[in-house]
Amino acid sequence: MDIAWGNDSELSESEFYNRVEDINIITSLITANPNSTPTLLLTGIRGVGKTALMKNIKNKLMKEYLVIYMDISKSDAYQEKRLDRISFMQVLYDSIIDSCKEKGLKTIDKTLKKMIKTNDIHIADIANYEYISLPIITTEKNYSKFANFVMKLPQNIYRQHAKEIKGIIIFIDEFQILRNLENIDSFLWFLRSNIQENKNVTYILSGSMSLKDEFIEKIAGNEGAFGGRMLTLEIRTFSYETTKKYMQEKAPELKFTENGLKQFYKCTRGIPAYINIFANILPQNERLDENNIKYEFKRKVSLLATHNINLWSRLTLQEQKIITSLLEKPLIRKEIAEKLKVTTGSISKPLVKLKNMMMIEQNGKEYNIYDEIFKLWLKKYKEENKVYPYREI
Ligand SMILES: Nc1ncnc2c1ncn2[C@@H]1O[C@H](COP(=O)(O)OP(=O)(O)O)[C@@H](O)[C@H]1O
Ligand SMILES: [Mg+2]
C-alpha cells in the first residue's frame, strides 16, 4: 500500500495523487509574468489536501525560486493564544530567514545588516541570523518599523539575488486564524498594499474555510481588502472516479466489490484525509462489500473523527449543546435558543466561535453541523451510551 497517513502533509511523490490540474493552474500563474506576480487564495474544507498541495508545489519550484512556507498555526504565539500582528510578523520574518538559509543565499547576512541600518531598526541580535533571536518589539512605533521592514524584505532579497532565483513564493497557511486578530480590517489593508508592491513575490494564502465563510469575502471579495486583485481557487474533494483509480493504483490490497467501493466513497465523501485514514485501517486481502464497509465504518468512525473529537472536548457545555441541538436537522438561531432554553442573544458569540472552528456552518439563516462523520460519531455515541459525551470522552 502506498498511502500516506491521514495527518501527514509531507507526501512523497508516489503518495501524492491527483491534483495535476490544480498544480498546472497554480504554477502557470506563478511563472506567467515574473514582473507582475499574482496573489492567490486557496480555499477548501479541512482535510482536502491544501497543505499537501502547497508543499508539493514548493518541492517542484524550490530549485528555481526562493519558496517560503509559513504556517500560522505552528507559531508559539498562536498555540499560547496570544497571536497578534507582532507575532505574525515575527513568524513571517523567521520563515523568510529559514528559507534563505535552506537555499544558501549567502549574502543575506550582509544585506540584512544593511537593511536594518537603513531602516533604523535597533533591535538586538536581529542581524545575527546564524543564531536567530527574534527582535523584541515593545512600542507601536517599533512595531510599524519592523512590520514595514519585514514586508519589504522579500522584494529586497529578490533584488540582491535576481541572478540566482526567478522569483519568490510565499505560502501563508492557516490564514483563517487571522480573523481573530484585533483590527483585522486595517491589518489586511496593510498586507495588501505591501504585497502589491512586491512585484517579484507571489503570495499564496490558504486556510480551511467553508465556502460560505464571510472571511473569504473580507479578503478576496469585491469589497474586500484585496478587492478583485486576488484570485481564489477552491481545492476540491476527490471525485468517485478519482477515488476508484487512487485505490486501484495505491491500495490494491483492498478488495472492494463495486458496491463496497461506492459505500467507501459515501463514507469518506471524497475527502483525502478520510480516504487515507479509512484505507489504512481496512482489512487487507479480504472481500470488502457494502456491508463490510458499513460495519468497519461504524466500528472505526471515532478514528476518522479524531480531529473533531479533539475540538469538541475543548468546547464549553453550552457550545456542545448547540451542536447536539443540530443533530436531527438544521435550525435557525431562535430554534436553537428555544431548545437550550436560553435567550437568542446569549448564543450569538458561541455560534460565531463554532462557525470559525468549522464545527458548524451557516446556510442563510440555518445552522448545520459541518462534518458528517463527526455527526455520525455523536449519534453513535448517544446510541451506545444513552447520553452525549458532554463531559468525558
Ligand atoms: N494529493 C493527495 N494525494 C493523496 N493523499 C492526500 C493528498 N492530499 C492530501 N492527502 C491526504 O489528506 C490529508 C490531509 O491533507 P492536508 O493537506 O493536511 O489537508 P488541508 O491542509 O486541506 O487540511 C493528508 O495527511 C494526506 O493523508
Ligand atoms: Mg492544512
What brief labels describe this structure?
Rossmann fold, binds magnesium ion, 3-stranded antiparallel sheet, Arc Repressor Mutant, subunit A, about 400 residues, alpha/beta, 10 strands, 5-stranded parallel sheet, 3 domains, binds adenosine-5'-diphosphate, globular, Helicase, Ruva Protein, domain 3
What does this structure look like?
The chain folds into three domains: 20-105 and 138-234, 3-Layer(aba) Sandwich (Rossmann fold); 240-304, Helicase, Ruva Protein, domain 3 (Orthogonal Bundle), CATH 1.10.8; 307-385, Orthogonal Bundle (Arc Repressor Mutant, subunit A), CATH 1.10.10. Helix content is 50%, strand content 11%. It has 17 helices and ten strands. It has helices at 20-32, 50-61, 76-79, 85-103, 108-118, 140-161, 184-197, 214-220, 240-250, 258-268, 272-281, 290-304, 306-313, 317-325, 333-340, 348-356, 372-385; strands spanning 39-43, 66-71, 168-173, 201-206, 230-234, 255-256, 287-288, 331-332, 360-363, 366-369. It has a five-stranded parallel β-sheet, sandwiched between helices. The protein has a three-stranded antiparallel β-sheet with strand order 8-10-9. A two-stranded parallel ribbon has the order 6-7. The longest helix is centred in the middle third of the chain and has 22 residues, at 140-161. The model is unreliable at 124-133 (pLDDT under 50). Adenosine-5'-diphosphate is lined by residues 4-9, 15-19, 44, 46-52, 208, 272-273, 276.
